Structure formats: structure tokens, C-alpha cells
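Submission sheet (multi-component)
Chains listed below:
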Amino acid sequence: MQDQAEQRTDINTLGEFGLIEHLTRQFPLENSASIKGVGDDAAVIDNTGFLTVVSTDMLVEGIHFDLMYSPLKHLGYKSVAVNVSDIYAMNAQPKQITVSIALSNRFSLEALDELYEGIRLACKHYGVDLVGGDTSSSNRGLILSITAIGQGTAEKMVYRNTAKIGDLICISGDLGAAYLGLQILEREKQLFLSNPGIQPDLEAQNYIIGRQLKPEARMDIIEMFEKNQLVPTSMIDISDGLASELFHICTQSGVGAFLEESGIPIHPDTELQAIKFGLDPATCALNGGEDYELLFTINPKDVDKIRFLPDIYIAGEIVEAKDGINLHTKGGNIHALKAQGWRHFEG
Amino acid sequence: MQDQAEQRTDINTLGEFGLIEHLTRQFPLENSASIKGVGDDAAVIDNTGFLTVVSTDMLVEGIHFDLMYSPLKHLGYKSVAVNVSDIYAMNAQPKQITVSIALSNRFSLEALDELYEGIRLACKHYGVDLVGGDTSSSNRGLILSITAIGQGTAEKMVYRNTAKIGDLICISGDLGAAYLGLQILEREKQLFLSNPGIQPDLEAQNYIIGRQLKPEARMDIIEMFEKNQLVPTSMIDISDGLASELFHICTQSGVGAFLEESGIPIHPDTELQAIKFGLDPATCALNGGEDYELLFTINPKDVDKIRFLPDIYIAGEIVEAKDGINLHTKGGNIHALKAQGWRHFEG
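Outcome: structure written.
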């Protein structure tokens, strides 16, 4: 029962420019390099002596997110985190983002404010400025397109195609949780749709669900590299599942890999939840997506720089291409790994 | 009658990465500054000593374009032109673009190839590299999000908020044609929908329809500025109609404007077609959008640098803010201008 009707301001009352002004006025420019942000034809970024790094992602309602269980604030936060994660995966520092949205009339201004509040919180957390974007209507649903722009130096930039034979394969954190979080949310959605009176049973799975709804990009890992004077030999962020990302590194570097199942970090909550669902935890870690941890390789001479860090897991070694990409299971078998990952086109 | 069925390759057969590879393999990196393009987490751009300029636009089927009369190749070309136009409007040089698309299953690979062929032609024409993007599915329709990145110098960068009292208001080409082109296409679409056997009557309006379907960004005007050592005092590209853009410059610069109707360039075909539709040609030029000409102001001491150029029209003067933004009509009246322009939210 509601005593008061919720406030609902129609987007049309502001006009496009009023809407942009409304949405972006809480984003002061923080970086001295951000010479010009929202309000002109383009954003201007002064980065003399540095490399500019640009990454972009598009998120479509019903494909990449479901507003039945993704609060808009979380969606805003995640959409930024996902993009800056790509910049960190280059060993660079994100500095600016642009945000374009298209949305249908069913979204109120208050809903949009929630979305932008999440974006604002993420900008603050990762130290990036919102410097531009575009806002328009859509016939159906919400579409978000975010571009992140970062800075790095030529000496420290890390690509996917530079892993060398003998390098150690490292992972920055536990995998598979985001995938299982999505399975729980999907299950509860289906139950709710068949019986709207039902209360969601999230099984107190805060950790797993949090990994799905509010992932963090690993800014701290990039800071650790800087502090420990470590430059990985290759790196990628794990958005599509460990197996798929390892395939990218190996294919582009012209090498193979020997991955230890025992070395793949899996959170105890993930392990238990996988078993409840009748799934193999390692399969969830290998093929579940959206964990946004970093997968990187290092020269073995650098191993002392990371060996005792709680956040880093050494999970295998880069080998010759002719030896393939194999998984050494806990059961003592060795079998060829398959890159499955997210396939939005097959959804 | 068709003898052979058209080839139709389902997008799903390629997978996401195969699709990206397929779509982007015809885009060699041309600029030496494009260190890394498609195929890593982010694009890397070396621009030591220069300013980076970034602009982004989102185009949604049914809102910004209609595939019933927008061939995909034209759409691809236009979506790039529209973005680089924003970079030129800063007096900067576009260098790279990223292209993100979401599309439903009704699009075949051949259709996508058409789209990317248009993008490729525009990249070639404007000298920009495609350096990244994202591709995913949508539940309905096609959504394009393009980010353009450019280079410029601090001395030559031109903003919207720096017009000065006494400056001359200049326009780079004729206005209103793109709007009338859209009206013709919309009329023919409605006739076709009510009677699919009918042949479209485009009234040999190649010029007007071309302005709508395949606008060009004014690269040549930026080159002329460079050659003539002219730096405008303010500039904006005309995407929403002259009146709306002039309001942006005046509001942000804290000035007014005195615009001469007789100085607004209108093509003879536009004039005739407006009259056929029972519209005032000047109103089409003032409030019709998508012409992508440049509106700029110059210090009167620079007038000799542009006075005799066929492409430049001087259409008024910047005045004090208290004098407002007025139009001096051909009929001898002076009345306050209204900024109407495109309002996609009111569509």
C-alpha cells in the first residue's frame, strides 16, 4: 500500500539538452587533462607524452541485463566498471568516459537519475570524468553505450599477443561467481513470473549475487604492478570466461597453455552453489563470464614480485603452440580446453 | 522475378569474434598514431603533444533512421560523417573511430557487410581508422553507436562559448535540404505502405534526397581555415537546425545575435520543394536538421580571409546579450528567433 504516488517526471518536459544538463551536472571534471567535457561537440583531452587508450561497450536491455533484477544504480555502476576494466587490462589508467543512452518512454526521470547515480559513483571510485555522450529515445528498452579513454606509456602497455613460452599464467581473483549469481537471479525471476506473490529466495548468496550485479574492475592490481615494478607479458580481462580469454592470449601470441584446474581460484560460496545447481564448479569458472578479473602472464623471473600476494593465483604455464591449450584436471587427466564463454548471438 | 535466391549467411555461424574479424578485416590502420586497433581490450593512440578530441553518437532504428528508405551503405557512411562533423566543429582532425552495433536476427551478414562498406568508404574519405567497437544482438532493430577521436592543438581548438560581440556569423553551405529530403522519403513511404504496388515519386530531387541520405562533413572548411590561417572565434556543426545551433553559441557565449534571413543560404531545389510542400524555405533552413554544415563566428578583422569564398555565407553579427537573438526577415521585420530543431524525445 502506498500513501503517496511516487514522483514521476516525464523526460519530455526537459527536452534533450535540458535532460543532458540535468543528468551531467553532478559530474565535475576532476582530471586536469579533461579540458572540455559535456557541452560542446566533442571532449578535449590533453595528454601530451602519453598514449591515449579508448574502449567501448554497448549494453542492451534483454540481452546484457534484465531490469527485473538489475537495479538501475547497479547497472550504471557496472556499465562503467566493465569499460574501465578493459583499460586496466592494457595496464593503463582510465581517465574519461562517454555515455550514450537510448531509452523508451517507460523510463521516468527518476529512473534515469538512479542510473546516472550509479555511473557517478563508479566515476568517483575509478577516478574518471564523464566527458560526453548522447541521449535519445528508443522504441523499446534501454541501450547503453560507454566509451572509456585512458592513458598509459609505451613501456608499460600490455597487449594480448605478447605471451612467451615459459611465462606463468596468473589470475587476479576467484571466478564463476558472477555466472552463478545470474543463474540464481534468473531462477527467481522465472518463479516470480509464474507466481507474482512469491518472495525471492536469494539463499543469502550476497557474495555471488554481488559479483553479478556490482562487479569491480581491478584498479588495485594495476596499482600493484606499478608499485612492484612489474609489467606482465600479456593481459586480458575475464569478461567471457577464463577458457575463452586464455584462447585469445594463446591464439594471438602464437603459443599454447598448460592450465592447472587446482590453480583456478573458486570462492567457497561459488563451489557450494555450483554443486546445488548440479554444475561442475570448474566449468563455471572456465566458461561463466562477467567476473572481470584480470588474466595475465608474467616472465618467471618476476615471480617473486607476486608469489605471496593474496590476490594473485598462479594457474599454469605458457607452452609451445604445438602442445595445444590443455587443462590438467584435479582428477589427474589432461584434456584439450574448449573456449565457450558468453555467446550473445546464440542466446 | 528472381532466378536465384539471394545469399543469406546467418550471423550466428560466425560467432561474435568471427563476426568482428569479418567486419573489420578491410580496415587497415592508416595513421601512424594508431598503434593498436581492433583485436585487443582497447585501442591505443599515440598523440604526443596534441590534444585528443572524442565525440560519440548513438543512432537507433525507427528514431534516427528508417531502413525502408535508408540503404545500409548510406547509413554506415552517414553515421561516420555525422561523428567526424563534430570533430571538425572543434577545428580538429578526426583520426580514429570506434563502432558499436546491436542488431536483431533479421539482419543477414550481407546486410551487415553493406553497412560496414559504407563505414569503410567514409573512413577512407575522412582519413580515419576504425580502432575498436562492440557487436551484440538486440531484441529488435539496429542500434549504432559511434565514437570519433581526433587531434588538435590548444591554439586552434574552437569552442561554442567564445563568440564575441561584433563577430560575424558565417555558414558553410546551404540549409534545409536534408529536412525536405526526409519529408519526400516519408511521404513516399506512407504511399508505399498504403499501396505497395506504387512506384516512388522522388521528383528527380537527387540533391535534396542526397543531402538527407548521404551528408558530408565539412573537412574542406577545416582545411581552408588552416590554409588561410583563420581560427574562428566559435563553431558548431548544424545537426539540429540553424536556430537551435545559434542559440547554443549565444547562450554559452553570453551574447546575442542579429541574423539576416537574406544571408541564410538555401539551395534553389530546396526553395522550390519547400514551396511545393507549402512550407516557408527559411523556416526549413532555420529549424530543419541534419545538414551538417558548420556555423561559426569570426573576428571582423579576418573577413578578407573568407569574403570571396564560394562556400562561405556571412549571415549576421554577434550582438550584446541584452539585444537578444533576432532574425531580420526579407520582409523588413525583426522578430525574436526560436530554437526548435529536432526533438527526438517529442517524436
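Remark: Residues 271 and 281 of chain A are 5 Å apart (CA to CA).
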